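<amino_acid_chain>
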Amino acid sequence: MKLVSLLSVLLTSLVPCMGASGQATKPAARSVKTSKPNVIFILVDDMGWGDLDSNWSQQKLNGRTVERKNEFKTPALSALAREGIQLRRHYSAAPVCAPARASLLLGVHQGNSRVVRNNRFDQPIEDSHTLGTVMRDAGYDTAAIGKWGVGGGGQSHVPMTAGPHQRGFNYFYGILDHLAGHFHYPSESRDVFEYNGYASNPEWKNIKDQVPQTAYSTDLFAARAKQWIVDQRKFARKTGKPFFLYLAFPAPHGNLVVPGVPYPSGGGLKGGLQWVKKEGTESVNTAFDAKAEKNKDTYIHPDNSRFPNDVAKRHSTMIRRVDDAVADLIRLLKDLKIDDNTMIVFSSDNGPHNEGGADSRHWHGAQNPQFFKSYGMMDGIKRDCWEGGMRVPAVVRWPGVVPSGISLNASQFQDWMATFADAAGVPVPSRCDGVSLLPTLAGVPERQKTGVIYAEYAYSGSTPNYSDFLQQHRGRGRQQQQIMFVDGFKGIRMGNAAPATDFEIYDTEKDPQEAANLAASRPDLQEKM
C-alpha cells in the first residue's frame, strides 16, 4: 500500500492507544504526509535499557517497580520520548554488537543471518538487501556515519567486501572495524574512512591523517552528520530526494573516554557542533578548541560530577554527549524546516556492558552496570539472552505522525527494514523477517501485525553474580542460548545441551525479571516452541 493511502487509513482512525499517562487515549486525526519522510536511525553502542531516563517513568507499565538509587539525566532523549513513542519492549537481534548490527542492516533475525553470528566480529555481511539498498532504491540519498563493523577487515582477517558503499550507502564517514569503536579519539590509533558516491571519481579513502587526534568520536560523527544533512538539502532542492541517515555512535562502549571540552552552545545551523576546514584538515569545531589537546579525555558533564567514582562519571558523561548531539540534530532539522517530515529512531545495539575496552592509552577501568541499574528492572547484561541483555532503549519521533505515548508491543531489529520500506512506499523485500511497525508508531496498535522475535547466540562465560539478580540467574552459564516468542510468551534455553532441552517460558511483559518459569503449566507453548 502506498505511503499516502496507508497513513490516511492509520492516522484518521480514532482507535485507542497508550497515551503518555499510561492510560488508553484516543488520538486526534493528524495531517497526512504526502511526501516520503526523511529517516534518521541513531544507534548507540552498549547503552542499556535503564540508561534511558524516560524508561523509568510510569514504572507500573514496566511490569516491575524497582528502586533506582543513582540516576543521570538524558534531557534531549527524554524530550524525544515525550514528543514521540517509547517502544519499551524492543529487542536487539543479539546480545552483542556484530550480529545485532548485521541483522539490523539485513532485516533478518539471527536464525537467517548467514555470516555474522555469535562473536564473528568484522565478518562481511552477505550481499543482499540492506537498509541502505532498500532506501536507495526507494529514491533516497543514503549515508552511514560512525561505526560499521560488518564489512570485512579488522579481526575477520578477510578482505573488505561489504563496506557501507558496497551495501547501498551513497556516503560513508567513520570507522570500519569493530575494535576502532573502543577508541573514542579514533585517529590516535585507528583508521578513519570516507566514501563519497557523488564525487566525479568516487574513492574509498583512509583519511586518518586529515582528522586531528583531538577529535572526539561522538562530536566528530555528529558534526559530519549535520554537515551531510545540510549538503544533502542543497542538492535536494534540485533532485527532490529525501534522505536516509544511519548514524552509529561508538559511545558508550568501553573504553570510558570522555571529551576534552564542554559541548558548544546553541545548535543547528549556526551553533553547537560545526564542521570546520582548517590547516589541511576537516573536523568538528571542538577538535580545534584551544583547550582540546591539553584537556583531552578530562571533561565530565557538571550534572554527573557528583557521582562518587570516576567510572560512573565517565559512563554518564558519554551518554550525555550523545544526548547533546541529538538535541543539536533536532535543532538543525527545525532550522532547515524539515523537522515535521523527518522520522528519528533512537536505539542501542544490545544491553549494558561491564567492559573496560581495548584502548591502553585511555584506561579507566570497567563499567559497572549495577551503579545506574543500566539493565533496568530486568536481569542480564551484554552477552546474556535474559531480558537485560536483549531489550534495548527505543524511541521514535515523527512530528504530526507519531503521537506521544508508550507502546508495550514486542518488536525486534528486523522490523525496521519493513517499517522504513513501508514509510517510503515501496514493497518490503522478500528476504526480510520483520513486520512494519507503522501501525504502532501511528497510534493504531490494533492494526499491528505480530512479528517474529527470535535470537540465537553462542558464547562462553556466565551471567554476572549481581546481588539484585535472581539467584537462579547469577552465574548461569551461557554457552548456546536461544530465545523465541510464541503467543506473546518468551521461551529461553541455554547451556551446552540447549538444543536438546526444554524451554523456560516467561511472560516478560508482566515478569520482566523472568522470575516465574511457566513451562510446567504451559505444555502447549512448549510444544509450539
In short: DSSP finds ten helices and 20 strands in the chain.
